Amino acid sequence: MDPPLGIRNIRERSALEVEWTDGAAFHIPYHILRAECGCLMCETSRTRSTTIAVETLSETLEPGRIGFAGTKALRIEWSDGHLSSYEWEPLRTICEEPLSIRLR
Predict the structure, then answer these.
(1) Separation of alpha carbons 65 and 22, rounded Å
(2) Of 6, 33, 75, 79, whose Cβ has the fewest other Cβ atoms within 10 Å?
(3) Does some domain include residue 1?
(4) Which residues are within 8 A (CB) of 35 and not within 5 positions of it... i.e. 6 or more apart?
């Protein structure tokens, strides 16, 4: 899958804006993105039936640093100290979830 055309941090909406090559664009709320972290620690927790509940995340949660993991993934260091990496296909799946906001 191609990487997004653009990723912007929209602090006033507590969301990341992701624009894809097919013209689709979405706002993904921070708490949804953080809850969908696919790192080994979070995935291990999910397999033990202790998923990250969105309501347990801090209301002040936000990305500290946003960058790329090579050419294959988005990398976010969260204000809670957690480091997340989202490959392009799973990121697009998160964009398509009902709690994300489709802009176009």
Answers:
(1) 26
(2) 6
(3) no
(4) 51, 52, 53, 54, 57
With the CA atoms of 57, 90, 17 and 82 taken in that order, what torsion angle do they form, in degrees rounded to the nearest 10?
40
Q: What share of the chain is helix, strand, coil (3-state, %, to 5)?
A: 25, 35, 40
The tokens of 80 are what?
């809670």
pLDDT tens figures, 40-60: 777 766 555 445 555 566 677
In a domain, 55, yes or no: yes
DSSP 53: -
Into how many domains does the chain fold? 1
Does residue 14 lie within any of the structural domains?
yes
In a domain, 89, yes or no: yes
> Which residues, in sequence order, are bridge partners of residue 26?
18, 102
The pTM for the full model equals: 0.84
